[in-house]
Amino acid sequence: MKRDVLRERFGRNWYRFRRNPISLIGTGMVMLVLLLALFAPFVAPHPESAGRGVDLSSSFLPPSSAHWFGTDEVGRDVLSRVIFGYRISLYLAVVVLVISVPLGVFLGLLAGYLGGWVETLIMRITDVFLSIPALAMALAICAAFTPSIDKAMLAVSCVWWTWYCRLVYGIALSVKNEEFVQASYLLGASRLRILVRDILPNCISPVIVKMSLDMGIVMLFGAGLSFLGLGVQPPKPGLGTMISYGSQYLPEKWWLTVFPSFALFFLILGFNLFGDGLRDALEDS
User: Which residues of the chain form beta strands (DSSP E)?
Assistant: First the structure.
């Protein structure tokens, strides 16, 4: 019976999702980026440009049929670097969410269901982190160590779990007094079982929607750190790093900044449209 209910709910959500043109556009954009990132070595016209490859005879070439996005100061193909930059941005976002989401969900469940001193301790720590601007915290962490993509992921993860903790805390706080939770408690179910079997399923849909929306925000956050020199370091093709270096040659060498900026815009817009469509499909679940 439960399996039939889940199948019916999935079918209803999938119907709403595919009937929404915004959802389909966002999904198409996300799938395109994922495919480009996954098959970057085969799709990029000049994969050697993603590393230390140098061709000074081809430096600062404008967009053409040979180099659609032009070349940079050492002759590297900008299109190839943008495609590999997608891979780095996706890697950054996935790792940050893999670290932040379980931590935030776990702490939010504990605070919302157990209450008492556990709730006070967890939520006051969360408030402290929320009171500090996320970018300032990330900048401080990155500046304290040698700048790298690993340090950037650590810095973003240190501030990102708080929003998931707040989200799940509110849901757990409202659900724990529901009749089905009280019934499980009276039947002798343990606290762990109630958390996992009764409260956690009610948090899954909101968390999934927030994750889909956060993908683009985390990538923008990481690109901002790279732009300031505290994230992806050359010669790795981070989008923020490419935009930062390209800005030195504006307006004459406009393609060095415009194309990586548009690539970042396309990436974030795709995930935002996908997340909006997913939210509309799951809002009644």
Answer: none
DSSP assignment of 43-89, as one string?
HSS-GGGGTT---GGGTTPPS-SS-TT-B-TTS-BHHHHHHHHHHHH
Query: What is the model's pLDDT at position 4?
Result: 55
Q: Nearest Cα to 276, choosing from 212, 218, 216?
A: 212
Question: Tens digit of pLDDT for each residue in 68-95?
Answer: 998 888 889 999 999 999 999 999 899 9
| pLDDT value at residue 2 | 44
- The SS3 assignment for 37 reads helix
Task: Write the DSSP symbol of residue 181.
Answer: H
Distances (CA, A) of 112 to 104, 106, 117, 120: 12, 10, 11, 10
Q: Are 278 and 17 in contact (CB under 8 A)?
A: yes
Q: Which of 82, 25, 104 is nearest to 276 (CA)?
A: 25
Q: Is 279 exposed, middle or buried (0-12, 13-18, 19+ CB in 10 A)?
A: middle
Number of domains within the chain: 1
Q: What is the pLDDT of residues 50-62, one digit of tens each?
A: 877 777 777 888 8
Mean pLDDT across the stretch 217-239? 85
Domain that holds residue 177: 2-282
Report which of 165, 168, 161, 160 is spatially closest to residue 200, judged by C-alpha positions: 168
